[in-house]
Amino acid sequence: MTILEQIRDELLFWFPVDTDAAEIAQLEAEIVRLNTVVIAAKDAAYAALSNELDGVREANATLNTANSQLQALITAAQAKIATLEARIKELEAGEEPEEPPVPTGVPTTLAFKALTSNAARASYITSTEAGYKANTGPRTPITATRGGGNIAGTFRNTRFTGGISPATGTTLIDCQVDGPIDADKKIINLDHCRIDGKGGAWGVLGNVRAQYCDIFNAEDGIKTQNDGWSIRWCYLHGPAIRGSDPHNDGIQMQWRNTNGLIENCWVQWRDTSELFAQIQNGEPINNLIWRQNWCGGSDHPLRIEAGCTNCQVLDNVVKKGHWGYYDLISSVVKSGNVDWVTGAAI
């Protein structure tokens, strides 16, 4: 029995006299219409829900695709970061740079030691400083000018009109910097640059690979940091006097300093030392080589204090200071060092 038949029978049961066949037919028609409306509404609702579900599925698929692409980018970025970190570790490991060529016109300490008279030695000293003046700083004219501040990348023949803060890996070639270089804990490269410290606390601060640089007008010429730095064929002169009681050092090694080389440099400073190594906060100073440099003008030109390890001072020409030639702990290996005037071993 259908639903309509059940309704009809119910109507006939309750209204056996008053309800005629025409009214029953009318009611049945209305029930059919309402049932059709209900079915249509249900079908429409189902269709709408189905479309919405398809949209959700499509959005979810798009989201999954985007997530996969993002994950691929993250993986690639992590690999790149790992590569860069590995390169930084290689640089900080202290691979010794290639030996730079000997500049034309710059005498060496080894040749000085072969001279036999004070007059010849004095003449040699004069020509030596002239050679450093001629062979350090930019070799070619400055062609670009920019302000100081944060920099990164490689710069050539550029003048910076203020102090700079270079990122790790920054290289300056044939450049001039009018202000201090603050590369705190950064690895930088300086080749044939002129640095005017403008009376600041230092000319250069950082883990520096410097060669053929002219550095002056700062309290400390260079303050080295971390592992594997090298300073070669550089001309450090004309320190700045800051305050009433300055403590000047030509090249100062404090905090962590390992695998460092100072070679064939002219360092003429004042007060404390030309080359100075001192432990700070217990951080290591280890494996330093000071070789074939010209040093003089301070109280103790060469100074290495307690706690420093595996240090060598070799074949330097030293001008006697107010307190002597050097103040070196007993563990320092020293040989071949001679007096600036007499050429006698010291």
Write the layout of secondary structure elements.
Blueprint: H1 3-14, H2 21-92, H3 109-112, H4 118-135, E1 144-146, E2 149-151, E3 154-156, E4 158-160, E5 164-166, E6 171-173, E7 176-178, E8 181-191, E9 194-211, E10 214-227, E11 230-232, E12 235-236, E13 249-263, E14 266-267, E15 273-277, E16 285-291, E17 294-295, E18 302-304, E19 309-314, E20 317-318, E21 326-328, E22 333-335, E23 338-339
Parallel strand pairs: 1-4, 2-5, 3-6, 4-7, 6-8, 7-9, 8-9, 9-10, 9-11, 10-12, 10-13, 11-13, 12-14, 13-15, 13-16, 14-17, 15-18, 16-19, 17-20, 18-21, 19-22, 20-23
Task: Give structural notes.
This protein has helices spanning 3-14, 21-92, 109-112, 118-135; strands at 144-146, 149-151, 154-156, 158-160, 164-166, 171-173, 176-178, 181-191, 194-211, 214-227, 230-232, 235-236, 249-263, 266-267, 273-277, 285-291, 294-295, 302-304, 309-314, 317-318, 326-328, 333-335, 338-339. It is an alpha/beta fold. It has two domains: 3-90; 109-339, no CATH class. Helix 1 crosses helix 2. The longest helix has 72 residues, at 21-92. The radius of gyration is 41 Å and the shape is rod-shaped. The relative contact order is 0.08.
Largest sheet data: 21 strands, parallel
Compute the number of structural domains: 2
Helix proportion: 25-40%
**What is the CA-CA span between the terminal residues?**
127 Å
Radius of gyration: 41 Å
| Total helical segments | 4
Structural class, from secondary structure content?
alpha/beta
**pLDDT average, as an integer?**
86
Ranges with pLDDT <50 over ≥5 residues?
A: 93-98
Please provide the count of β strands: 23
How large a portion of the residues is in β-strands, by DSSP E? 25-35%
H and E order: HHHHEEEEEEEEEEEEEEEEEEEEEEE
In one word, what is the shape?
A: rod-shaped
